[in-house]
Amino acid sequence: MTQISQAAGPQVVAGSSQVSVDDALDQIGLGPFQWKLLAICGLTWAADAMEVLLMSFALPGIRAEFGLEGASAVPLLTATFLGMFVGAIFWGNLADRIGRRNVFLITVSLGVIFGLSGALAPTVTLLMVARFLTGFAIGGTLPVDYAMMAEFVPTAWRGKFLVYLESFWAVGTIIVAGLAWYLNSVMAPEDAWRWLLGLAALPMLIGLLARFGIPDSPRFLLGRGQDARARAAVDTVARSNGNADALAGIQLAPPLQQARVSAASLFSGSLSKRTILLALVWFGLSLGYYGIFTWLPTYLRAGGMELADVYRTTLLLAFAQLPGYFLAAYLVDAVGRRATVAGFLAVGAVSTYLFLSASGAGSVLATSALLSAALLGAWGSVYAYTPELFPTSVRSTAMGLMSAAARVAGLIAPSLGAMLVTGNLSAALSVFAASFAVAAIAAWSIGTETRGKQLEEVTA
């Protein structure tokens, strides 16, 4: 029986000059390929953030054009989340069957088409259909982009890069808030919302064009017995990083886990605990995050704030997300993934009550900024933690399932968040604080730490 050496450097299988994909990428090291992949996936991730959040900025103009009042806008807000729920399950499973790269390209293409169609919708019904289809498309970018990033980055940098990718959500938030602020200052809200939807689709188009030069995941290809394509993908990384001779004379070893793991196994055996607890984390975090921030512009407007001031305040809160990401990128390696996720969620629960007790514009801004930083730190760390906990053959499926749990919360959140506008502030924020607290307990209860471990070591 072959044995894997534990010496430093690539782990060579005795007598066969083979290394695992983990060791191959660790030997090649970090370089331009990973930074390029981060930029490409990050651009699409920023575009996804714009698509998810833009309806809260476009809502005043949509209300004005179509005469929507009160809670009649809730179905419009939930349409995107419903589409993302369906898309996350569909595309995540498909990526584990036909490859990351194919879904990598298809979902972004559809996102551009459906995103632009929403800007041209002549009726509320067609706008809802367009938003559902946009959500369906971008629901596939989450499981695929994070599977790709986790499977191409060296072990020592994997946690940071997964947080860096999630930080592009803040970039998208800043862009959509700034764009909404500008558009509503130069044109009527009835016209501004269409321009907002149309311009939000452009970053995704740029991201699509850049994606064609990225190979499929070598881990996925090896698991499918496509050894030559897997080696070609690794060689592409080596050439891009200026280390073409790093694996000269060395072959890629087959995965340690030879049997493919089915999607059903996510709810059985050793994976069931991770799946259920992570689903609780994603659900609880999403319920509070979307419940608060989807309705925050409308809540501030109902409190008497001018529309331009609402967008400026929202833009400031988007900038407040960046310290949360930077801190998460440090903590996932300094103290570990599990403690970082649970810690940020606990701070989010406390911050929610601080926001509830705030009085005065300065206090509201300070507590909401703290809440924004805490929740986005939680998002960054949970996105780093989740793909590391599942085997390659179901990694995209698992990420899609977690995203689906988040979208279920996203479907519920607008109805709960509407209580912010109708005066039930205490009840709404109490629900959201409780959801963060439960998510924090679930994250800590997972019990597995992935810091510094190769993917095969975690999921063996």
Give your account of this protein's structure.
This is MFS transporter. With 460 residues, this protein is mainly alpha-helical. The chain has one domain: Up-down Bundle (Growth Hormone, Chain: A), CATH 1.20.1250.20. It contains 19 helices and two strands. The protein has helices at residues 21-28, 32-66, 74-98, 100-119, 124-138, 141-152, 155-186, 189-200, 202-211, 218-223, 227-240, 269-293, 296-302, 307-334, 337-357, 361-385, 395-421, 425-445, 455-459; strands at 18-19, 251-252. A two-stranded parallel ribbon has the order 1-2.
Secondary structure topology:
Layout: E1 18-19, H1 21-28, H2 32-66, H3 74-98, H4 100-119, H5 124-138, H6 141-152, H7 155-186, H8 189-200, H9 202-211, H10 218-223, H11 227-240, E2 251-252, H12 269-293, H13 296-302, H14 307-334, H15 337-357, H16 361-385, H17 395-421, H18 425-445, H19 455-459
Parallel strand pairs: 1-2
Q: Any descriptors?
A:
Growth Hormone, Chain: A, mainly alpha, 460 residues, 19 helices, 76% helix
Number of domains: 1
| Secondary-structure-derived class | mainly alpha
Instruction: Please state how the strands of the largest beta sheet are arranged side by side.
Output: 1-2
Could you give the distance between the termini?
Answer: 17 Å
CATH superfamily: MFS general substrate transporter like domains
- Percent range of helical residues: over 70%
The main β sheet shows up as: 2 strands, parallel
Give the CATH class. Answer: Mainly Alpha
CATH architectural arrangement? Up-down Bundle
